[in-house]
Write a structure and sequence with these properties.
This protein is mainly alpha-helical. It contains eight helices and no strands. Helix 2 crosses helix 4 and helix 4 runs antiparallel to helix 5. The protein is globular.
């Protein structure tokens, strides 16, 4: 089975698996990836001595650039081997139509990619985007908010790829309703909530639409 596109997909899937392992190891060892992105940005653009950290998109740009650079390395590694052919990675490939095997491979790659992007990468990007410091009493709730964000993105992806994007508004509305009172009373929380929600939904929508585009262009 010779298919350069599927070969590139498997390489990207392997790269995303490595990203998952790195995220787990970082979490277990106490290494904070968003904090590292902020620190890197701080070296590039020293903060003003105002006594209070200033919010900026810089750390998000640093983390995004790291992922883009890693993806570029994967693509560059694929270029010299793209014409060598893809080995039969599916056991029943010899007795199954090549088109069916290709459908299965691409569906697996896209599903895995959507999962990693919306669970691992999105969590890091949203956490880097939000204001840096939280009070210790708020950190447990912030972890719960991250879990809610993951579920929110999964639902948005499912609704987008299944042809029901209109229902995304209900997902966001349900999340907002649960925190309506606090949104009304706490301006800082409202801004943080709006920023995190919009970023989360945007990542889910963009990744789902990109997966749809790849699927339809491939077939």
């Amino acid at each position: 089975m010779t298919d350069p596109e599927v070969l590139l997909g498997w390489l990207i899937a392997a790269y995303l698996a490595v990203a998952c392992v790195v995220a787990v190891v970082a979490s277990r060892t106490g290494f904070d990836i968003p904090a590292a992105a902020r620190s890197t940005w701080g070296r590039i653009v020293p903060a003003r001595s105002t006594g209070k950290p200033e919010w900026t998109l810089g750390p998000v740009a640093v983390l995004s650039l790291a992922y883009v650079a890693a993806t570029a390395v994967v693509v560059l590694a694929w270029l010299p081997v793209r014409d060598l052919g893809l080995p039969n990675l599916v056991q029943f490939a010899s007795t199954t139509a090549s088109a069916d095997v290709r459908h299965l491979a691409i569906a697996t790659i896209l599903g895995w990619s959507l999962l990693v992007v919306n669970v691992v990468v999105a969590n890091q990007l949203v956490e880097t985007l939000l204001p840096e410091e939280l009070k210790k009493s708020q950190r447990e709730r912030d972890r719960m908010g991250a879990a809610i964000g993951v579920l929110e993105r999964v639902l948005v992806v499912i609704l987008t790829v299944s042809g029901g994007p209109a229902a995304i508004g209900f997902v966001v509305a349900a999340k907002t309703l649960a925190r309506f009172k606090k949104l009304d009373k706490d301006k800082d929380f409202a801004e943080r909530y709006l920023l995190g929600t919009l970023a989360s939904v945007t990542i889910a929508l963009v990744s789902a639409l990109a997966a749809q585009l790849i699927w339809y262009r491939t077939f």
